[in-house]
């Protein structure tokens, strides 16, 4: 057994007992109340999930196992003291609740390199889709096709005891994370570079290898990918991709099914699709108003464009959030990255200008709970700066990253032996009866 599994076994035994005790001895404890408006506006703020990997505070943003983004940028192992932490380190932290050493991170890099060979039929499934199909369609289909390899599914059919489900879940999770960059890069090269596929380089870390397989081999892009894959990795349990993955796997569907389902949720325009939509939206605006700086008359042009867009019943991608009530710290981290490494970039200037223009317009509507930018407002402009301007692909990159958090959590779902998730629904008559109307 590898040492990560040994640690999980030890920690998992203790925590499983705690979860069992809480459910049994404290089962009647009231944790929250639910209002009519919460049920009818997407269950916002209703505590109903157990997620250990990260926690989101509306005012302070995400903390991964208690650590903020700036703290982790300092504390997680890096290859170069000036660079960005390796996402492997964040996975280790989320999975084990321990800050990793550089050796721990290297262990994961090596494991993922060993496990990164994608079965041939996965590419056949992707190739069966027309190249015009959306990258996220290809990505989720590819992940579904990987389910043939599920060790969890096999073990379940063979009747392994429930307390051991997590062992093969961990194996599936490690294989899935190892292979996602290869699948994503394959889709990228198939769609945008005539199918000229680049094999992985065993000397590179997980993020750099992804950049390499996409065709970008510079320290600058490696650094950007390490940051990108770190920042998008997790956002507690209630976001659509995390919650879907958790829900589907609660039926003991294998991790490949569960993650493919999560990815179909990530593909929605109110969730991860915004990652790509921001750049399409800005380009559309610039086509209409022309190249612009951030002088007063240019800000006015942007504001008018924003207002007209909203008047058509559409949302401004990259702004707003279901939980956050401040500028997303993931946005701030990317802005700092741009300030440190990038000079004179028109698209980034426009993104910075939007920060001044969009929130007051959204505030003026009187209904938007959070007018501030989210993670998606910045990422596309950084990728575009380094030449990765095929914005239709960005949500796939988000999907590679999101695996780190939600799949670490999935291992814990099985360690805790969480049961099938099955909330109660009611009819409209029932809601009317409650209101007495
Ligand atoms: N532009 C225009 N209107 C907005 C925006 C926005 N960016 N954000 C919220 N609103 C509207 C929203 O559509 C709703 O209108 P109505 O009552 O007419 O249906 C109203 O404001 C209240 O919505 P909120 O309660 O503030 O937001 P909610 O929690 O429902 O939704 C988002 C959160 C993130 C879905 C929403 O802010 C949005 O659509 N943002 C743009 C899309 C986006 O950037 N999504 C990415 C989120 C992060 N991620 O990566 O997943
Ligand atoms: C995410 O990263 O999942 C998004 O910010 C959406 C969310 O947290 O609801």
Descriptors for this entry?
mainly alpha, Cytochrome p450-Terp, domain 2, two-stranded antiparallel sheet, 2 strands, 2% strand, globular, binds nitromethyldethia coenzyme A, binds D-malate, Citrate_synth-like_sm_a-sub, Citrate_synthase_sf, Citrate_synthase_AS, transferase
CATH architecture of the domain at 274-385: Orthogonal Bundle
Radius of gyration, in angstroms, nearest whole number: 22 Å
Overall number of strands: 2
CATH class of the domain at 274-385: Mainly Alpha
Query: Looking across the biggest beta sheet, what order are the strands in?
Result: 1-2
* CATH homologous superfamily designation of the domain at 274-385: Cytochrome P450-Terp, domain 2
Query: What molecules are bound to this protein?
Result: nitromethyldethia coenzyme A, D-malate
Number of helices in the DSSP assignment: 20
Structural class by secondary-structure content: mainly alpha
Strand content: under 5%
Give the helix level as a range of percent.
Answer: 55-70%
Shape estimate: globular
Distance between the amino and carboxyl termini: 61 Å
Q: Provide the succession of SSEs.
A: HHEEHHHHHHHHHHHHHHHHHH
């Amino acid at each position: 057994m590898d040492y990560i599994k040994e640690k999980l076994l030890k920690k998992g035994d203790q925590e499983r007992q705690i979860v069992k005790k809480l459910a049994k001895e404290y089962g009647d404890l009231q944790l929250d109340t639910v209002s009519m408006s919460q049920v009818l506006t997407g269950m916002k703020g209703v505590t109903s999930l157990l997620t250990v990997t990260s926690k989101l505070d509306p005012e302070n943003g995400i903390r991964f196992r208690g650590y903020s983004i700036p703290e982790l940028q300092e504390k997680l192992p890096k290859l170069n003291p000036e660079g960005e932490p390796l996402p492997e380190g964040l996975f280790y932290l989320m999975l084990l609740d321990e800050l990793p050493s550089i050796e721990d991170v290297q262990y994961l890099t090596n494991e993922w390199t060993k496990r990164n060979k994608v079965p041939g039929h996965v590419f056949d499934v992707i190739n069966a889709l027309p190249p015009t199909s959306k990258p996220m369609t290809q990505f989720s289909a590819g992940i579904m096709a990987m389910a043939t390899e599920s060790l969890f599914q096999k073990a379940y059919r063979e009747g392994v005891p429930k307390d051991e489900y997590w062992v093969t879940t961990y194996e599936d999770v490690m294989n899935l994370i190892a292979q996602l960059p290869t699948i994503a890069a394959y889709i990228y090269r198939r769609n945008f570079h005539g199918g000229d596929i680049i094999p992985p380089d065993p000397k590179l870390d997980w993020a750099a290898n992804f950049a390499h397989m996409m065709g970008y081999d510079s320290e600058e892009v490696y650094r950007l990918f390490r940051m990108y894959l770190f920042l998008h990795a997790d956002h507690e349990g209630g976001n659509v991709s995390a919650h879907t993955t958790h829900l589907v796997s609660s039926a003991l569907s294998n991790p490949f099914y569960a993650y493919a389902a999560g990815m179909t949720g990530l593909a929605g325009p109110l969730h991860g699709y915004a990652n790509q939509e921001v750049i399409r939206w800005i380009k559309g605006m610039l086509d209409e108003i022309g190249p612009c700086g951030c002088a007063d008359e240019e800000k006015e042009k942007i504001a008018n464009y924003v207002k007209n867009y909203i008047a058509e019943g559409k949302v401004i991608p990259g702004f707003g959030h279901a939980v956050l009530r401040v500028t997303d710290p993931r946005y701030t981290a990317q802005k700092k990255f741009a300030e440190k490494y990038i000079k004179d970039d028109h698209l980034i200037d426009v993104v910075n200008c939007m920060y001044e223009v969009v929130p007051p317009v959204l505030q003026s509507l009187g209904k938007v709970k959070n007018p501030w930018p989210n993670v998606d407002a910045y990422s596309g402009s950084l990728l575009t700066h380094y030449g990765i301007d095929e914005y239709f692909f960005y949500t796939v990159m988000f999907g590679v990253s999101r695996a780190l958090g939600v799949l670490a959590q999935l291992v814990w779902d099985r360690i805790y032996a969480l049961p099938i998730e099955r909330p109660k629904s009611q009819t409209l008559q029932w809601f009317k009866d409650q209101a007495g109307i």
